[in-house]
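[agent] plan:
  1. take the single chain provided in the ticket
  2. run structure prediction with default settings
  3. attach structure tokens to the ticket
  4. add a short note for the reviewer (M.T.)
[agent] executing step 1
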Amino acid sequence: MNADQLKALQAPIKDSFKKNPSSALITLKAEGRIGEGIACRVVRAEGDLDFRGTLGVAKDAPVGFREIRLQFDLDTDAPAEQQKKLIELTERYCVVLQTLRNSPPTKVAIGS
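[agent] step 2 finished; step 3 output follows
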């Protein structure tokens, strides 16, 4: 696909977002599970995007997530104190959460 084809493909989407900015607001969701036989789903993540930023429709619209939410679902009858401790440890060792809170250096390069 060349640049003109891409622009033609994106044009109706961009026009729609210009006319109705709220239609560009989308929530993406993902769920993860660890292995068989583990009773809790460790990471459910969802985040809100405004695709006007990504498509260059509105300069004031951010590129990237506006908000990210993580939810930990526990399937347990453990006492509240143990559940609280489990959430604390999960927050501490959750790869997604820690990556978002402590963004690693990111490099961009053109390959040869």
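[agent] step 4 note for reviewer: The mean pLDDT is 87.
[agent] ticket updated
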